[in-house]
Amino acid sequence: MENLKQSTSHPRGLYVLFFTEMWERFGYYLMLGIFSLYMLDSVQNGGMGFSATKKSDIYGTYLGLVYLTPFIGGLLADRILGYRRSIIIGALLMAAGYLGMALPGETAFYIALLLIILGNGFFKPNISTLVGNLYNKPENQHKKDAGYNIFYMGINIGAFVCNFVAAYMRINYGWGYAFAAAGVGMLIGLTWFILGMKHVKDVDIIKPTTKEDLPLKKILATVFIPVIIFGMLGWIIPGNIFGSNSNDAFLIGCMPVVFYYISLWYRASQSDKRPLAALLTVMGCVVVFWAIFHQNGDALTVWAKDYTDRKMPAAVANVATKANMAQTVNYDASINYSNEEFDAYLTALKKEKDSLFNAGNKAAADDMAKTIAIRGNSREYFANLPANERPAQGKDLKLISTELFQSINPFWVIVLTPFVVGVFGFLRRRGKEPSTPAKIAIGLFITALSALVMVAAVKSVNTSTDKASALWLWASYGVITIGELCLSPMGLSLVSKLSPPRLTSLMMGGWFLSTSIGNKLSGILSGLWESYTDKSKFFLTNFLIVIVPTIALFLLLRWLNNVMREKGVK
Question: Where are the domains of the chain?
Fold first, then answer.
């Protein structure tokens, strides 16, 4: 009976890491859920007042860097710090960053982002590595995929709850309090980890280096100094190869890191070459997954805000209003909400505000600025709302807060994880479970289908005069969530299975490098949103971007499965 219990239960350390990651992701996704909205909102409303182009540029760069720093975080954990110490350092830096986002001003904004980026580098690869290490014992190895799926569900519980907290804090207290809530969540997660880290002590092992490993000083000289040099060159190159200075700096700056990972394969022993080649191949293919998936915080957030019917049913509106969770817009029938005429109307209001300010009437100018902000927010919703669906003159309309749509994906993860785990468990018991690389290929294909759902969403209405049903977002997120469950936790599992033991955390950093590049591409793609008059073509482009590497991965499956068998894993 004891042996049966040993073989079916998960290590206690998993639940320590589960709740630590849940709270960390609560803070991370709370911040990310309101990030684009905060940058677009006017300064008068407490936002940054950035243009749509600048917003997408910063969004993509932030998401890219936040997953690029795990490279150095994984390296330092492997060689010097250990995993537990790295996690604590990362959590403290991220908490400081989220709290810093609550401070006003552009300087505080960029410093806070830097702290979050650095903190994630120490935290993210190392908690994932600890999860894998828990399953290195022979009696636990067959449960590794299931363990990562459980861990992944913890991520999404935090990601689901956080947006309701964000909406409540933003509507009632402002942007700053919403960001501060993210910092509090991170501190709760850190406290839980410190109290329970005795359960992961045995798997926190600094691995000895071998002759194949580059010394840390040489890595700094051959990788990080070139990253800085390449990044600076990308910034100053005349013209923009990838659309902006920051895009050029990021993507060109990544080249030395990519070359470093290729050099790991080149210098590896013969027994390690094929597993490393398989890992690098899969990492290259899944870049496109993240390029599409992380548009949820940018292009799909804009779709939810401007093109989705967000009206609350009366019964829901009453409850949401009492709970201070409803977004309110006010309708003025005397205003023409079409783009050209409304722009002229806002321009006239801004001139009036400037005149009041120049005349020394600052209080009246501030009131006018608030009016401009309110009118601007109303315009975004009423511009393509049919006349017969608008409220009466001067009446309010209660809307679902845009950031709540960010909870659809984690909702589906929570609901569908037991189903996906159950299906793979059913197939495993019959000897028909797909290999880990096959699951990743299936996940990519399903992700491509989610883009086609959004093509259908655009085609369902005339987006210039009407709004699409919110059910389209539910459907698209549901489809991509199935793809995510097949791909993302399986990717972490694949790294743990195929990496040489001394390079496990570093290769976790490589997985997050592919995520980083994909995230930056998501910002580049989202930055093209305004250039597509027909939004269906935007989503069709997404489909084509995903389907090409999907086909390539299916063609390589036989080779990848052979490598898995040679390694003695499935």
Answer: 2-212+268-307+402-567, 314-399
